């Protein structure tokens, strides 16, 4: 990493720490509020330093990007700021002390066996997401639920971009804000290990310009590694759908994930999903990005 990139990364780490302490109150971390007026929301620097058992000056220099923190101090800060697993990963990556192996930035390809798996999930919408939340492959059920990804340009075929910029994709999600915040947060997680990635910078820049919501959440340094949850859809044909979403990391590359949506057996959503996917049963082959 160049000296300029190193300074930029330290500055981002400081901004991330500042954003996290702004979210916490003294009561949330077991501190008594002294009753004095707070110029900024959340915890003060001295309160974070006290919780992490380090000096205020030491913490200030970390937050100002003037000092590289040790692994021990990072662990103390993670505990003090109540960071979840995804936030801790982001913190360690920014500090140049990743907890796992870094992602190799090779070509994004989907293995034939994964295509076969998608084919067999003919009643469950499924897709493979790659770096930047690019949609690399999908099955007919995913097309029936979302839209025909094959009709989109490679530039448009990105899950986060569709959530923020595609009106029909956005309207499909009943709890759009929750889905969009999580998608932006998973994208933010990528920036820690790849601060100089031009494609990632271009995507974040475009979304920041065109979406005020993305700009706000991106600036808040929200990160997430969520791998499961419940999604609520309002489909124009099938009506309301409540589906469980699960994602798994690809065995051949940590930056590829298989996302599968399923409905509880016997539920109205299961019946509606079965009807919806049956209409596309004549085209069960998977497709992938060129």
Automatic annotation (TrEMBL):
It holds the Pfam family HTH_31. InterPro entries: Cro/C1-type_HTH, Lambda_DNA-bd_dom_sf, MLTR_LBD. This is Helix-turn-helix domain-containing protein. Residues 37-88 form the HTH cro/C1-type domain. It comes from the Bacteria. Gene3D superfamilies: 3.30.450.180, lambda repressor-like DNA-binding domains. It comes from Streptomyces spinosisporus. PROSITE patterns: HTH_CROC1.
